[in-house]
Amino acid sequence: MAVGPHILFAGGGTAGYLHPGIAVAAHLAKVIPEARITFAGPGHAREKHTVRTAGYHYAIIPSQPVPQNPIQALRFVTDNVAGYCAAHWMLGEQRASLVVGLGGFTSTAVVWAAQSRGVPFVLLEQNALPSRTTRWFAREAALVFAAFDEVRPHLHVQASVKVTGNPARPAFEDLFHRTCANGKGHIAKGEALADAANSRPKRLVVLGGAGGARSLNDSVPRALKKIGNSLSGWQVIHQTGEGQLQETENRYRKCGIEALAVSFIDEIASLLFASDLVVCRSGGTCLA
User: Which residues contact 115 (CB under 8 A, 6 or more apart)?
Assistant: First the structure.
């Protein structure tokens, strides 16, 4: 019996890096059903849950982001060297056929190990300004899959780049095709939204979280307070990201606004398709 390829997705740390990888993995699983797919990341609880819920193995690789002070610098060196050694061993022990670098600090260690072992690797770049991993390894990568053509000037002239756009998770694609079924396109979508609007309150979804999205946790409650009665009859659902739930709930409470704040939304696709307005940061993955 032939053994399928082992594809290792390396990176994560934030949803913007992780979810494009999960989207690509889902498509690969359909095209190459015998493939073995593993994700390697820093080991955050939410990330492990997301990957395992999607049906893939998850391996923890020690890693640290760029240090902000001398104390963090020591941890940065020790953890990332340990991550490189762990990745180097894992690639050989588990006979990885291909590494897919997703971006993020874990991606650097694994892609570096793949390069040293001679394991082919490709890179996913979600933004117009590439990550450090993409800039450092673009020349040696078999291919860089970019969301935007504007990424080219930031990479080595010999880098092989293919602009594909950002991959969407299967749940989004399935809902989109269902909405536009039978060739009705915008008509079907308009009818669906009209039916939804008649059967529920208008819904506002706020996607806060890490990085630039963190500011939404602070600014949106105050902004909604300013519009006053215009918000009457609206349901507000706010995703805060890890470690920011209580502070965001307190902000809404102080502003006198009734909102449902949650750390993460697992079924984000179905929620967004049943919403009237979404506020999010303009990152590449969010826009996709």
Answer: 121, 137, 140
